[in-house]
Amino acid sequence: MKLLDIFGTLKKDMNVIERQLSHSIDSEHPLLNETSLHLLKAGGKRLRPAFVLLGGKYGTYDLDRLSNVAVALELIHMASLVHDDVIDDADTRRGQPTVKSKWDNRIAMYTGDYIYAKALMIVARLENPQIHQVLSKAMVQMSIGEMEQIRDFFNTGQSIRRYLLRIRRKTALLIAISCQLGGIAANAPKEITRELYRYGYNVGMAFQIRDDVLDLCGTEKQLGKPPGSDLRQGNITIPVLYALQDDSRREPLLAEITRIHNANGETDVTTAVRMVRESQGIQEAELLADRYIQKAMHALSQLPAGRTQKHLQEIAKFVANRSH
Asked: What is the reported pTM?
């Protein structure tokens, strides 16, 4: 089963969410309307809304309630991407110009702020205080993760543990609470929402590790951006950290990363990418991602067997093997 097949079972409800996403960021201000819709039109996997809906299957499934959670979480994700592109000085995303490159940094930052605000307006429709507590705590952690990434640009001395804590905050938490809040919004039992969170957290960790691997191994067509973009921006990801642990490759790779740093992002990273590919860094990162997938599968084994459990298993498999 492919990811599209899973979404096919949710197609009607996902279409509702897609329409609500477009409506939710509609603005009377022409420029703000154009910039807000820009990333939405570029598409995306919509994993977070799908996780919300699937989590909702473990309780009293109510699309009106679940869609508010799903739309809010996807908007938060979108806003973070707009801000990320400013921080990373990224010109393309999903093969399309970023808001930052099509307009400018200031327009992009205010667009991201506007989308965040819209997300909060939508989730405010829900009266359950637990939903607001979970969401606000996650947003705080996401902000800390973004600050840590900036602080660690070109930091080749950072530990694996530090990297994992950063991606937990930047990526895994939002996926974890997508699963969890779907269950909470549907009034699923506490033990169910706990396992949904564990599943989402581990899938989220694997997702980001695979993303870091793809940045070094994928093609520009697959990625929608040039390979090695993370290195060019100074983001030292886990395949690079593992490669730096190889004594025979450490000094040449360090020298190449220093050269990239001194070039202020305007340089070729082909040599550094090749060095990481030739090391064991890629394989070790993939093994770590697989371990997180196994943890996600274990969390799923604690949930009631059935169609929803199988769909969540297939999404985990998609994350483990994705090529874009």
From this structure: 0.91
